[in-house]
Amino acid sequence: MPQTNPTGFTPSYPNDLNAVGADAPASAGLRSGGLHGGNTRRRQTLMTLLDALNELSKDESMGTELDLSLQPSFEDDRDVREWFAEGDKGQGAEDDLRRVNNLDKELRNFSNAARQLGSSVGILSSAFHLRERLTQIAYLFRENAADLFPRKVSHQPKESIVSPNIGPRSRKRARSKAPPHVRRPLIVGDLDPEDFPAQLGWFAREVVTFLHCLNEFPEFTDEGVNASIIAFEGDLKYWASCLKTYEGVPTIRFAQKHGASNLLNLSTVATFFSAVTATTLQYSFDMTGTPLSDSVNAFWFTSMVFSIAAAVNSLLGLTWKQAMYRSPGHRVPWWVLIWIKRSPLVFLVLSVACFSVGLVLFAYSSKQNYVVSTITTVFTAFSSFGLAAVSTWFASERWVFSRHKGKKWLEDSLDDFWDKLMGIPPLPWLADKTADLSQRIISLFAHTRSAAVNASSTLTNLFSSRPSLDALGPSSSENSLPSAFSPGL
Question: Which residues span the membrane (predicted)?
Fold first, then answer.
């Protein structure tokens, strides 16, 4: 029967797991006669797991005790993110992820060793859930580090967080052959950075569950392990409560990133369109002297000016949005906000419109075939109408949102406008007369269609009966009297 001796043993510091790993072999542990070697290996595995937890805990505590002299000075004009990226923060993030992976490895080894024990399904399940939660935290940690230090830490798929060196086929084979409580955990679903505090809280609960499952073995009792894991749970809860203070920061970051990506896309499209306009200008810049050729050059030069303005204003807005020292929206003049937010899209639309008009005029000024000119004009008018209609719809949606503070949709506003318009005295009478006239026209078309169908069926029956009469003619004339109009009489 294994004996324990936890009497008189207390860790030097409740959160110092090295004390447990150093003193526990002398003060507490598993003692057995025939199974002394197996218990020693399992105890060594547990101590290695606790050392990994200690390393992870100490890294977090050391991060909070940095010297204030290492803090950045904001007196210069450098961006804070650039200052952090120049230091060793990226390497520190990689080291933290490596320690998390080492902890996951020790948990896996512990699960493999615990499979030899009886009634170990609880500890196996708890270890697997602990590894699964640790994998999710590692993924969120890496995504956050990649957003903060994009030049140091790169984004990786969810599957590569667990083991970056294993290919898809090997990973699939490992999942299919591994035991249910030892297989590599995967990340299922989308993880939001807003869930970081909740994930740490759940990780603390999984740690306590792991401790309870460990204490279910009557042969194992170690107060030092209990105190260390409970202290680690307290640290996790404290970190989770601290992270709750920053709730909403990922949402703000996502909104700013979304606005910056829109401006970047506009800049890319405007730059590409400038290249297209500059290429087409090579065919018409030397065609002068006639009104059509001069109009073509005028529209295409104007299109190029607007496209360049759209690209430059997009880059200007992108720089302004990412600037640390920019003023809030309510501290900026309205015309500056409108110019930064709306001018790139407006200039790009005007550039496309001018280029389309110049293309139609170029088809006539270059004396193309009338079929080519007509097709170009028709399709340009069709596409321009769609562009104008959609642009008007977007502008109307913006106006309705600003007027009604988001309480009414554009369709509802159009319905209200139509009801008010139909309330003017002449319009209801005209609407009724128009409805009656349209109903009469529809009924007239219906009667005409029915008469045409009847006439068609009558003619079809008439012509379909003629062959049958001709087929019966010779047989019936042999038994009938000769006619007065017979040619033989």
Answer: 263-285, 297-318, 345-364, 370-395
